């Protein structure tokens, strides 16, 4: 497949080569097809439309052509950076900072990898691993509130809605790639502490009652005392603490993300996502506070 345009950014690791396509089956699939050669590491694939785009849990991702920034990054990180918790935090924090810069608005992470502005979903991230790591990003650009309402996505938003005008996709793409590149450079230098701090701050779950669904089918409840890339620490009663490694927290086919309010029953989404077979990762659910 031949790209319609190639761009080059002055970055250290990501985006030195950006391939732009009018339409592809999936930018993640396209990136994965290049995973046989580490020389392609850092390459970015962007499409105006995906015919078989997908989100988390095997959902089909549907967006009208040109409505979203649809991109994937191909990486070959060292083994110590391949943990899902680290990669998810890196992608979520980097894109969140880019959106915050563009929109001049606070951006929060909805565990594990949705991004919210004013409580509404503006971006979703999908990370897939084999021999390489592929990071897929879908950022709502110019959808209107009427579009979201027509698709039943009452808790979604777009950069255009936040800004009050349709954004130019080119500077948005550059901002996202630059932020991801900056954070990736920090990781390669071994600076996990700064990323972990930024991740915890944007999640905003510390001190809150949470529900943790484990891979073995059990569930833990408690107040979130601390969370790191190496353990989620729950206060389960009095001064008793229970520390759970992120790899053990998977919640495979249960509720996803922050539970909807029992009063509204609504959940966020980025464009239309059709539920399919859920695929495992680790999830944390803030309990609804009455």
Structure description:
The chain is an alpha+beta fold and 290 residues long. It has two domains: 5-201, Bira Bifunctional Protein, Domain 2 (BirA Bifunctional Protein, domain 2); 206-286, SH3 type barrels (Roll), CATH 2.30.30. It is 24% helix and 30% strand. The chain is built from six helices and 15 strands. The strands form three sheets. Strands 1-2-3-5-9-8-7-6 form an eight-stranded mixed β-sheet. It has a five-stranded antiparallel β-sheet with strand order 13-12-11-10-15, with no helix packed on it. Strand 7 and strand 8 (120-129) form a beta hairpin. Helix 2 packs across helix 5 (169-188). The termini are far apart.
What would you say about this model in short?
By secondary structure, the protein is of the alpha+beta class. Helix content is 24%, strand content 30%. The protein folds into 2 domains: 5-201, Bira Bifunctional Protein, Domain 2 (BirA Bifunctional Protein, domain 2); 206-286, Roll (SH3 type barrels).
Quick tags:
290 residues, alpha+beta, BirA Bifunctional Protein, domain 2, SH3 type barrels, 2 domains, eight-stranded mixed sheet, five-stranded antiparallel sheet, 6 helices, 30% strand, disordered C terminus
């Amino acid at each position: 497949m031949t790209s319609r345009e190639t761009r080059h950014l002055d970055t250290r690791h990501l985006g030195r080569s950006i391939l732009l396509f009018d339409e592809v089956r999936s930018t993640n699939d396209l990136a994965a097809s290049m995973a046989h050669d580490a020389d392609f590491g850092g390459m970015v694939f962007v499409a105006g439309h995906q015919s078989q785009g997908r989100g988390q849990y095997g959902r089909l991702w549907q967006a009208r052509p040109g409505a979203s920034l649809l991109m994937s990054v191909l990486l070959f990180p060292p083994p110590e950076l391949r943990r899902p918790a680290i990669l998810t935090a890196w992608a979520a924090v980097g894109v969140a900072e880019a959106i915050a810069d563009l929109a001049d608005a606070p951006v929060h992470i909805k565990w594990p990898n949705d991004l919210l502005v004013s409580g509404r979903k503006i971006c979703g991230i999908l990370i897939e691993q084999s021999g390489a790591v592929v990071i897929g990003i879908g950022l709502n650009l110019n959808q209107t509130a009427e579009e979201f309402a027509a698709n039943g996505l009452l808790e979604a938003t777009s950069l255009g809605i936040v800004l009050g005008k349709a954004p130019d996709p080119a500077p948005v793409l550059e901002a996202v790639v630059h932020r991801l590149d900056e954070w990736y450079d920090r990781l390669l230098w071994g600076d996990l502490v700064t990323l972990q701090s930024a991740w915890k701050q944007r999640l905003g779950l510390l001190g809150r009652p949470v529900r943790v669904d484990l891979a073995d089918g059990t569930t833990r409840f408690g107040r979130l005392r601390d969370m790191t890339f190496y353990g989620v620490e729950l206060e389960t009663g009095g001064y008793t603490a229970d520390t759970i490694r992120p790899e053990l927290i998977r919640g495979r086919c249960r509720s996803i993300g922050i539970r909807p309010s029992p009063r509204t029953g609504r959940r966020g989404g980025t464009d239309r996502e059709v539920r399919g077979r859920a695929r495992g990762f680790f999830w944390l659910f803030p309990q609804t506070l009455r």
